[in-house]
Every structure is written in C-alpha cells, then in structure tokens.
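1st attempt posting a full record on here, be nice pls
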Amino acid sequence: MSRGGATLALALGFFLGAGAAAAASPEELARGELLFHIGGCTNCHTAEGGPLLAGGDPLETPFGRFYAPNITPDPETGIGRWSEADFLRAMREGRSPSGAPYYPAFPYTSYAKMSEADLRALKAYLDTIPPVRRPNREHELGFPYNVRWGLLLWQWAFHDPAPFRPDPTKSEAWNRGAYLVLGPGHCAECHTPRTWYGALDDSRAFAGGRLGKEVIPNITSDPEKGIGRWTAGDLRGLLVIGIKPDGDFVGGDMAKVVRNGTAKLPEADREAIVEFLLSLPPR
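the predicted structure (as tokens):
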C-alpha cells in the first residue's frame, strides 16, 4: 500500500471509530462511565504519572509480574481496532481477538458476570478515551507460567462465563449490590484467597487474600476476622472517603478503589453494595 493509501486508511479508521463512539446515546455513555469507575479500569491500566489507560504499573503475584496493557483506542498499541465482539469475548471468555487466552490477572472471571448491555456501554465509553500510542510491556513470568497454552486448560477447569443471576429471594438492592461486587467491581479477585492453581477459593469467599506483599483483609461478617462489627455507616464512610471505624484511612490499592471507583458511584449503588457486603456469611 502506498503512503497516501495508508494515510487514507488510517483516516477512515479514525472517523469510522469516532462515528461508532458518537452513535452511543448519552445515557449509554453515562452508564459506561459508571461501569468504568466501579470496574477500576484506571487503577490497573494507568501507570503512576502516566497517560490514562495507556498501560499500568507492575502487578506482583506469586506467579510473576504482570503489566496491564494499553486499552486506549489507539489502533496500533491499544484496542482501537477491536470490534464490539472482540471486546465481549475478552471480557467474558478471557480471549484476545486472535483467540489467545488471557491470564486471570485480568479479572475476566468477574467481568464475565456483567450483562451484555453493560459490556456494550463500557466499550462505548472506552472508545471516547483519547488514544495514546504506547507499546505494551511483556509480562515477566517463569516456567511453567509463561506457557500460555496451559491457560486453555485453566479456563476449561476454572472459568465460568455465565452472567450474574439475580437471587429472587433477595431484595432488588441486594441483587444490585451483588452484581456490582461480583461483576464489574471484581472485589472477590483481591479479597478471596486463591488455590495453588491460581483460582479463587470459593469456600473462603471474601475471607482475605494477598496481592504481592499487600495483605487484603477479610470482609465477611465474621466479628473477629472480618467486618462483622461494622455498621452500615462505617462501611458507607469507607466507600465514600476511605475512612475506617478506628479513624484510620485505607491505603495502597484500596485507596485507588475508593478514589477512582466507589466514591464516584451514585448513592443508591453504594447503599446496595453496603447491603450485600454486610450479608456475607462469616469465614
């Protein structure tokens, strides 16, 4: 292709992409922005002091060091060429547009619980983010974790792509809270311990985990190990400004969760999260 032809193709791609983003209604974009905040996209995909969503700081795990990729609409180094179907597949199945499996450091195991309408709205909002040309960094993994095809077996054994199913015996607010916590909020990814295989240990759901050197607390209703003695007001204060009942403030990654996520939610959604979290059985 000639230089002029390539330029024309890129220009057409830009305007077609802009048209796709413009086609989303204001309501859908607002919904996508809400999901963007509760999903914590900024927390992982933006390096400290770096451009928004152009790639994150290292994520230390027992399996190696992961780097969240560029998810701006840049067509070369981001997801600017992804179709809506590509995005849905990544979020639900943990597969790239080429079909390669993603490591579960990308919490598609939780995002899969999101509704299709919410995933489409999130994609529409991401398409409005300014594109940044910034190549992704390779993960730093040792054997056998660097053998990517093994993830196909992992997904077969441990990943359930089924969307969230409301509990008809619970209130509408409880179900909304459960959806936000278990789906876009992906709280279990940090607050639930993992098995030797790297899968969430559902028998100890929300009983606390570890992220690198950071110990993630138990948030079940256990009165000694968890938040069983917290009131709704205590939990509300944490979600709004990050303050704990003892007057201390959360730090580390949780400070980002509050600042970039829960503090920006509508009050009704925070109340729903409070209702759900306070109902978690003690562990």
